[in-house]
Amino acid sequence: MSLREQIIDLMQQDGFRPTDEAGLLKQLGLHKKQKASLAHEVRKLLSQGELLRVQGDRLRWSGSAGEITGTLFVKGSGRASVRPDAGQEGAEEGDISIDDDYTANALHGDKVAVRVLASRRHNRHTDTDSRLGRIVRIVERSRETMVGTLLTGGRVTRLQPDDPRLPQVVITDSQVEKSANGDKVVVKLAPWDDPRSPLSGVIERSLGKQWEPRAELLGVYEKFNLATEFPQAVEREAKALPTQVRPSDLAGRLDYRQIPTITIDPDDAKDFDDALSLEPEPNGDLKVGIHIADVSAYVKQGGALDLEARERGNSTYLVGTVVPMLPERLSNGLCSLVEGEDRLTLAAFITFDKAGRPKKTEFGRAVIRSRKRLSYRQAQALLFLQDFDEIRALPALAKHQTGATGRPLSELSDLELVDLQSWLRKLWAIAKKLRASRMAHGSLDLDMPETKIFVDAKGYAERLVKMVHDESHQLIEEFMLAANEAVARVTRSKKLHSVYRVHDAPDFKKLAEFREFAAILGVTCGELTRPEEVAKMLATAETHPQGHLLKSMFLRSLKKACYRATPDGHYGLCKKDYTHFTSPIRRYADLIVHRVLIHHLEGGAGAEGRAAPGTRADLEQLADHISDTETNSQEAERESQKIKILEFFERELAKKPLNRFEAIITEVRANGLFIELTESMTFGFVPIAAFTDDEYQRNQNGSALVGRRRQKKFPLGKKFDVVVHNVDRVRRLIDFAPAG
Fold first, then answer.
1. Is 385 helix (H, G, I), strand (E, B) or coil?
2. Which one of 318, 531, 617, 627 has the minimum C-beta count within 10 Å?
């Protein structure tokens, strides 16, 4: 036992009374020659907050007083910090940096108790001092198992975790013989209390060979505890449901089967929650129906389907597949608003005047029959192209990538295309005005392009496509936002117990740190607590060479949206009333809101605002749960994307000749350039050794690499072509080289 441990062990014993250093020396049975060592250890423990001075020079253990609990986060670089739990004293001061020597036996993601040290670390990027801390104990482990690749070479068999932020695990059981080097396995971790001993565990099961698509997918399922199968009780309940809408289901519903209705979704959509209908009024107004799948008609509160959906919280969309919240019989079948089939909906009907201003909002349960399942790409073409032959020539949707393709555009008559084009253009004329009004009233344009990864029939990453938030996306977005706001306005004004989508205003300190970061990139920001100044900064980011990084860092400075049982508003959208209503197939929050609204429409809410499905306390607990499941799914989705991007570029290495990719320089380092590929938005690095035409070095102000002989420059923001040079799938790094 170390001297430090002896001191704390003594002070934690019942009956210990505070004493000075001389008393400690005596009680610990130490020799006088150890007095200096004891004094040194006491000073360290005092600086770390482990000991307190009381009654003059007497010492005692500080106990849990002064501890801050939070979650440990480890970056790819190895730097660690603890994000304090909200509501504690000092939590508002932000993350606490943890040096390597002070992480104890904590792992990334663990809930820990940390003690803040007297010293602080200066952050050169933000010109601020961050707190330093020391982890004193593990409150709760974040994992009982670990997924990774088995390394059987040498005397000791180890697990190389998929997550590079985690340490290797020593395998201690005989099942090693059943798994081969390079297998992806799940390891059950042994208790790890002594950081001086290695982390160890035993193999639970093998998932297949490392880097094979199926094995990698199983690894994501395991790591994020995603259930790919439903319990038997859930399957039985789903199987008892009809496969089609029955005549008896239509009682009391508005019949919209003859009203023009369409869906617009991504190419690879697996389910279809929402549809839009159009009804011209005699006076020139236009009634738009925002139809949402009426999942509550089939998923009854308290049943097996409902309880499982509640537990899952939401669907998880991994590359090439989905882990649904509801069984496929519902999510892709009975509840999905597929083309040409009768489907039940709960709808918000908003009537717009000739100028595109909303006049009236009504709600009702309906039955629809979608005229066409459109992809965003198809809708964009119909909005802006005139040549029907060009529209018909668009590539057909791949059957293995989507839940339902609908009739190909190539099979539609001119009259059908004219109708589709007319409906879409009428909808866009209104949506465009809704968007302009929203931005004028302070809503932030936080939409960013995303990389869509398409897989082949075997599950390998086939292509990366930059998806831009174009007019077809904005059309759907505006009507969905309008419906969400309209429902939230009803539930708040009627004092109904419900669930809301909340986005709190950012902390002033976070905005100040972002302003300092933006200044490093040459962007001067005004007072970012004012929406108009944020709008100016975001507009600048659109044309800035590091605009994507700038916008990403701003998003990180904002608080995370979550679910709450209180209508606390949405900062990013600048809306007082906001909830999630439009995706009950894939989000349990929306199903709850549907039940609340239906209960109200049917007259079930009393004067005191009591509404199904539960009390305020019930919904507060539920909101916390579904916020957690959403975060877990988002992390799983990011993991899936990282894996597939690395897989894609590793396969690129085998191509002859190598494909060229346009890149833009986002950061200049002494040892090379950080780049972003303009088409796929993939980040990578070009090491300085990859430049073979000259000897390059960073210039004095750090804005460019410059060749010594020819003075050729590679400055920030410069675009140039690159080829893949190396892919490290373990460390998750991609190196590129200038294209020859």
1. coil
2. 617
Torsion sign, CA atoms 383, 384, 389, 395: negative
Please say if the pLDDT value at position 51 is more than 90.
no
How many residues in total does the chain contain? 740
Tell me if 338 sits within 8 A of 373, measured CB to CB: yes
Q: Collapsing DSSP states into helix, strand and coil, what is residue 525?
A: coil
CA triple 170-171-172, angle to 5 deg: 110
Query: Residue 190 class from Cβ within 10 Å (0-12 exposed, 13-18 middle, 19+ buried)?
Result: middle
DSSP assignments along 356-370, one per residue: S-EEEEEEEEEEEEB
**pTM exceeds cut of 0.70:** yes
The helix/strand/coil state of 404 is: coil
Short-list 253, 254, 240, CA closest to 300? 240
| In contact, 706 and 712? CB cutoff 8 Å | yes
Residues 6+ apart with CB under 8 A from 69: 84, 85, 88, 111, 112, 113, 114, 139
> CA–CA separation, 217 vs 209, rounded Å?
11
Q: Which residue has the tokens 């509550």?
A: 296
DSSP helix/strand/coil, 344: strand
- 337-387, pLDDT tens digit by residue? 999 999 999 999 999 999 999 999 999 999 999 999 999 999 999 999 999
**Strand order in 713-715's β-sheet?**
696-698, 704-707, 713-715
Dig out the tokens for 130 from the structure. 């961050």
- Residues 111, 725: Cα–Cα separation, whole Å: 39
Selection from 695, 726, 691 nearest residue 708 by Cα: 695
Average pLDDT of the chain to the nearest whole number:
90
- As a whole number of Å, the end-to-end CA separation of the chain is 61
Give the residue among 228, 399, 406, 401 at the shortest CA–CA distance from 328: 228
180 vs 261, residue with greater confidence: 261
How far, in Å, are 313, 356, 393, 597 from residue 305 at the CA level? Answer: 12, 41, 42, 20
Element (H, E) at 686: strand 683-687
Helices (H) and strands (E) in the chain, counts: 16, 33
Dist CA 79 CA 251 (whole Å): 61
pLDDT given for residue 658 in this prediction:
95
Q: Is the dihedral of CA 701, 707, 713, 714 positive or negative?
A: negative
Residue 152 in 3-state DSSP?
coil
Is 482:611 a contact under the CB 8 Å cutoff?
A: no
CB contact at 8 A, 320 and 391? no
Which of 89, 87, 133, 93 minimizes the C-alpha distance to 113?
133
Q: What is the b/e burial string over 213-241, where b = at least 16 CB atoms within 10 angstroms of the residue's CB?
A: bebbbbbbbbbbebeeebeeebbebbeeb
Cα–Cα dist 367/335, whole Å: 11
